[in-house]
Amino acid sequence: MKEELIISGRMNPNIDPVLHIWHWQIPLYLFLGGLAAGILFFAGLYTILGKGDKYRGAVVYAPFVAPLALVLGLIALFLDLKHQLYFWRLYTTIKLESPMSWGAWTLIAITPLSFLWAALNIREIFPQWKWKFTFLDTLEEFFRRHIIPLAWALVVLSVILGIYTGILFSAFNARPLWNTSILGPLFLTSGLSTGAATIIILARSHKERMMFSRIDLGLIIVELFFIVHMFMGFLASTQVQIDAAALFLGGPYTAPFWVLVVGMGLVLPAILEAMELAKFRVPAIIPASLVIFGGIMLRFIIANAGQVSRWLY
Amino acid sequence: MNERGVERSKKYINPYLGGVLLGIVLIAANFVSGRGLGASGAVKSVVVEAVDIVAPNHTENSAFYSEYLELHPQPLKAWLVFHVLGVIVGGFISGVLANRLKFKVEHSPRITSRRRLIFALAGGILFGLGSQIGRGCTSGAALSGMAVFSFGGIVTMMTIFATAYGLAYFFRKNWI
Amino acid sequence: MGPLITNGIISPETDLLLAFIIGIGFGFVLESSGFSSSRKLAGVFYGYDMVVLKVFFTAGITAMTGLLFFSLFGWIDMDMVYINPTFLTSAIAGGVIMGAGFIMGGFCPGTSLCGAAIGKIDAMVFVGGLFIGVLMFTEGYPLLEGLYNAKPMGMVKISEILNVSDGVMALLFIAMASGAFWLAEWFEKRSKKVEY
Fold this sequence. Notes:
By secondary structure, chain A is an all-alpha fold. Chain A has twelve helices and no strands.
């Protein structure tokens, strides 16, 4: 046996930055998870508020996207795993201090709920739909009677899911760019914003579209605020954080981040949504698609840049 | 479209004011980046990147691509690519403000849409080819070249306009 | 002071970010001047709408004199500004091909992007054509290489060829442009109105 003296944490494998440990799977999964969280949050919220009839895009149509997004996201996540056959081990423990444990348990709860929600609304798309077994009718009846607790569960779980997509990065304390707790609220807001954008695309009335444009505009402003504060926090911190911020302030990620995420993914859709509210004619699909595009780019750029950011040695 | 709609969608700014603003943008480009404006170069970046992805062996063996890729290892991370992204955004915002967003084929009432599109395609192909031979298009060679007194740029500008005037008679049906 | 990039005031990455912002200005001015409409652009060749000539030459002389003043005040080092190199043969050959493309397609690359941005389908087709044309060049480069590199004259300026100072040259351009503007206005009034 070869003996080794561990004299520094740096001797741990892969502790130094290596780009492309995390490929496209993780950022894609984080985007899809955030998107599903955003959609389900609004579906639950408007059901609780009793406005399901007015906001049918949010409560009925957009939620069909959520199970799809979750399944695709989980496939991406599974592809990324090294020991794919052992993923079930996550479900043998509950660790409150581990974001992966939080994520695994939240997903196992919210994914079936998203399917359940879609099943309850299936007749909106196929009016002739009939369940094969009578006990399913009974079950449907049961959930319809308890739709409000179900909506509450969606709201709570989607907020946890949304925050978790960011915390998964922040818990990684060997990468200074990720090691900021602002990523949690930032990714949650971004997820809600992409969810609102999906609802804008699938909205059933002009009023609903306008409502969600307003919500989305507010979310974008909050998101910009988080981004500015993230950088202020980095710059006021230690040298490693300042170096991490420099990746975006003149470094290699400057142009992609400020042009693709902030410029085209946040500021431009915000301007277009504001113009739409000011009665200019803007095809709603354009700001909405830009928001979704920006959400994807945010995850990919943060995932990539984080893998480059490093401690000083 | 109603009378007011037509009028509202025709609010172009005064051409001389537009020219001064365009001049200021061009000064800004020179001041910031030491270069002029452009458009066709971004198309080249995309073409090279696309060919490199589709047929990497081909780009390795061809002198043009391999030289280009050596000078620009990341073709899409180019000044003109970001510039052109901005052009599309700026054009779109102006179109929203002036209420001009609309899917349509613009053509003279004397020709069909089909004919217009065929000529647009042919014109695009020629302009794409010509801009590469002439080292820049109307923005990159002619306008930006003129601002810095580039002899080549001014020659290109004069030949573009002279040729177009010379051929105008043959294509008049397309336009008037 | 300027150019900011060559003097190291901004990083190459920030330069790309500013390229985007400058592009927004470019696209905005082009579109609001009416350059997103092929029939408006083509008007310059038939006299019914001279907007291309007016905008183009106003922009040219504005930038030209602006840069001269910037250089005079020491705000920009013109030796560090890129001056398009002159290859006489290819400049003429390219210009002829582009001129034919202009009268047939009704756009140039920059204006076609603006037209495409506001939904002009003819502009989108033109942009598609650009890709084909550029691909023809990159693929046909071995054949075109001789033409492309013939008669290199370096970064030569027209003022050097005519042996006058840049200031006099700018004055000459302003005089020519003013004459052209006067002609353009006269022509526009005289020519038959075309509805588009």
